[in-house]
């Protein structure tokens, strides 16, 4: 008779350490506490997170929810051992989808699944999540950590995020009246953000470079560090611009699918959008990916953000006021194009993309 059979089997023996999970909760409590905001001031550890809409100042709110992950970018975090920024990406992918609907992100919950919980790694991940929440002005009110040996191998883990926001009734975007002649503005991205990393990883594999090699497109940083540059969070400047001007008609988060797939999501029937590729100034990472992978421009535009993480559709006569409001909030908007009559394709391009 084996010793395990003689002594009885345990959950820890099966690979799940409840004590490690409890220890991690205690470690991250100060990080979570730092994200408190009006409407959310409870400690984590209960069976559910609480949020008080009245305390947050809402009178007649519509709730807006979004969930997302970070895709295979998480593999680079795992393979480089850099876990403290991937949580920012997780928050960004959710809250940016909420603010494009004219809503203010209020609270966030995360799901972290792994083969074996390493408290230091888990705390680093939550540290990034908390930083993302601070950048977005939303509270981290809970989450779930799951050890699942047999489903995940080695140091692998995956992340999912869930965010809820609110807007006063009648203020949601996109709003009616988008018409030919409206101006299209773009807000710069920080790099690849969190989409297209299955292609990014294949290109890196083709080059033969290790994650610790110097980044060919960004002197002074390793390749892994450069590619882990976090997704920008546009919440605060966009909320400030929405408050300062009534000229914004629609917002579009440029994620998977790039310009061709994301822009039509905010367009009504009968209109299209024309983008001047010459107005884009893609960060050097995109030129490097295009060259090393032999990626054609149409594929780049449908896979990556190519330097623009957020698009703003504004009334022509108020475009300067919107751009000024964004500038006051720290965003250097660029004129990307205009709304047109609907042609065979909802999104058309002029000019040349400088990769």
Would you give an account of this structure?
The structure is a single chain. With 355 residues, the protein is of the alpha+beta class. The protein is built from twelve helices and ten strands. Strand 2 (104-114), helix 5 (119-136) and strand 3 (139-147) form a beta-alpha-beta unit. Helix 2 packs parallel to helix 5 (119-136), helix 4 (86-99) runs parallel beside helix 5 (119-136) and helix 8 packs across helix 12 (319-328). The radius of gyration is 22 Å and the shape is globular.
Secondary-structure topology with pairs:
Layout: H1 3-7, H2 18-33, E1 61-68, H3 73-80, H4 86-99, E2 104-114, H5 119-136, E3 139-147, E4 157-168, E5 183-188, H6 197-207, H7 223-227, H8 235-244, E6 248-253, H9 258-262, E7 271-276, H10 284-293, H11 297-303, E8 308-314, H12 319-328, E9 334-341, E10 347-350
């Amino acid at each position: 008779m084996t010793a395990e059979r003689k002594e009885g089997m345990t959950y820890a023996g099966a690979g799940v350490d409840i004590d490690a999970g409890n220890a991690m909760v205690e470690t991250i409590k100060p990080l979570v506490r730092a994200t408190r905001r009006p409407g959310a001031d409870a400690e984590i550890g209960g069976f559910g997170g609480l949020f008080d809409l009245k305390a947050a100042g809402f009178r007649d709110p519509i709730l807006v929810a979004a969930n997302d992950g970070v895709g295979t970018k998480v593999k680079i975090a795992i393979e480089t051992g850099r876990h403290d920024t991937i949580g920012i990406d997780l928050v960004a992918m959710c809250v940016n989808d909420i603010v494009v609907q004219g809503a203010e992100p209020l609270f966030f919950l995360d799901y972290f699944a792994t083969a074996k919980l390493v408290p230091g790694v888990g705390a680093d991940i939550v540290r990034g999540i908390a930083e993302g929440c601070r950048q977005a002005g939303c509270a981290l009110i809970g989450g779930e950590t799951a050890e699942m040996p047999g489903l995940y191998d080695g140091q692998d883990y995956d992340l999912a995020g869930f965010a809820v926001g609110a807007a006063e009734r009648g203020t949601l975007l996109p709003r009616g009246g988008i018409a030919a002649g409206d101006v299209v503005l773009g807000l710069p991205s920080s790099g690849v953000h969190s989409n297209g990393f299955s292609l990014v990883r294949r290109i890196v594999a083709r080059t033969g470079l290790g994650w610790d090699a110097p980044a060919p497109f960004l002197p002074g940083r390793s390749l892994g560090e450069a590619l882990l540059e976090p997704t920008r969070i546009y919440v605060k400047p966009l909320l400030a611009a929405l408050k300062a001007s009534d000229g914004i008609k629609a917002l579009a988060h440029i994620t998977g699918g790039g310009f061709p797939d994301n822009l039509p999501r905010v367009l009504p029937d009968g209109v299209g959008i024309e983008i001047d590729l010459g107005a884009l100034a893609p960060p050097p990472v995109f030129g490097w990916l295009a060259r090393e992978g032999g990626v054609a421009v149409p594929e780049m535009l449908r896979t990556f953000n190519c330097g623009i993480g957020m698009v703003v559709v504004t009334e022509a006569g108020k475009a300067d006021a919107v751009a000024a409001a964004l500038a006051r909030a720290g965003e250097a908007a660029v004129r990307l194009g205009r709304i047109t009559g609907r042609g065979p394709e909802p999104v058309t391009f002029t000019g040349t993309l400088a990769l």
